Amino acid sequence: MGASDAGGSSGGDGRHDAALPVIDVSPLTGAGSAGEVAGQVSADQAAVARQIQEACRDYGFFYVTGHGVPAALMSDLAAASAEFFALPAADKMEIAMAHGGRAWRGYFPVGGELTSGRPDLKEGLYFGTELPADDPRVVAGLPLHGANLFPRRVPAMRQLVLSYLDAMTGLGQAVLAGVALSLGLDGGYFAAGYTAEPTILFRIFHYPASPPGTADWGVGEHTDYGLITVLAQDDSGGLQVATADGWIDAPPIPGTFVCNIGDMLDKLTGGWYRSTPHRVRNLSGHGRFSFPFFLDPGFAAEVPPLPDLASVGDDGRPRWDGADLRAFTGSYGDYLLGKVSKVFPQLRRDVLT
Ligand code: OGA
Ligand code: NI
């Protein structure tokens, strides 16, 4: 499918009729390419990198096709997710996040997560890299590291989530190889550095239908925290992306993933690539499922700006939340914990203090 088929919908509420680009990333994901992006760059890979650069400069968002993720994996995961969220509340609460302890895994009910201080109209499952209890990071009590909580009532979920994490890690690394090329870096720049031991978070969200005319956001305006997000969404719609000209829709396109860049890529590029605010309101009249996967720097990594790009500077536009990413100098783990404890204040009290 070409970019012209992506079909932005015209909004009657001030949204604009622009379409986010659709990029065929098969030159980055195709057989044998993953390791080789680090060496000789093919003409096709260079062309993909140019499209990624344009998309990151214009929107910070793009769709990917040619990703190689099996459709059956996606549909099986979607079916298991529907089964889980349809369970009685007590069954879902068996794996409530409170049972995940410092690893911050498990289920949270509607209203359990805040964006910009307001409860979101969504329920969800939090997953991450599956680490055994004797992993040194778990032994050391590093927050957000540990074992996942899987639902007893949906036994298929465990293997599906673990397979999906593998598939998304591969795709995310391939897209990051394209991002590296787009910045004039070696294709293996991220895989050899920031994402050699990545921080991986994965969520499955269920957004109940928002009643028309209410101000309830499924997830309020925000940017993502790390390097890159790879999102699968069902056919409900409702994801919106901020552009220089206002909000546009990121409608579902079957067989694609939505990729967007996060705060660490913004910081790394000194604002040359901006992490883009987005939000969700589910007006479909039925439940909406989405599957955001986050491929982020290792917990201990600091992310100073690349010298060449820092000298170019950003476009001078203030960030949506008024924050100055350049002023933050700690590790990615520090940044992430600061963010996560704002969206889960109860867990901050229970776990981090
Ligand atoms: C997120 C997010 C969008 C969606 O999890 O950061 O923006 O469609 N999700 O669920
Ligand atoms: Ni997001």
How much of the residues is beta strand, in percent?
Answer: 15-25%
Task: Name every ligand kind in the structure.
Answer: N-oxalylglycine, nickel (II) ion
Quaternary? single chain
Write out the strand line-up for the largest beta sheet, numbering strands in chain order.
1-2-12-9-14-7-6-3
Q: Total strand count, please?
A: 14
How helix-rich are the residues, as a percent range? 25-40%
- Taken from the alpha-carbon principal axes, the silhouette is globular
Structural class: alpha+beta
The string of secondary-structure elements, in order, is EHHHEHHEEEEHHEEEEEEHEEHHH
Largest sheet: 8 strands, mixed
Question: Which segments are poorly predicted (pLDDT under 50) over 5 or more consecutive residues?
Answer: 1-12
Q: Please report the number of helical segments.
A: 11
Cα-to-Cα separation, first versus last residue: 50 Å
Rg computed from alpha carbons, rounded to a whole number of angstroms = 19 Å
- Integer average pLDDT: 88
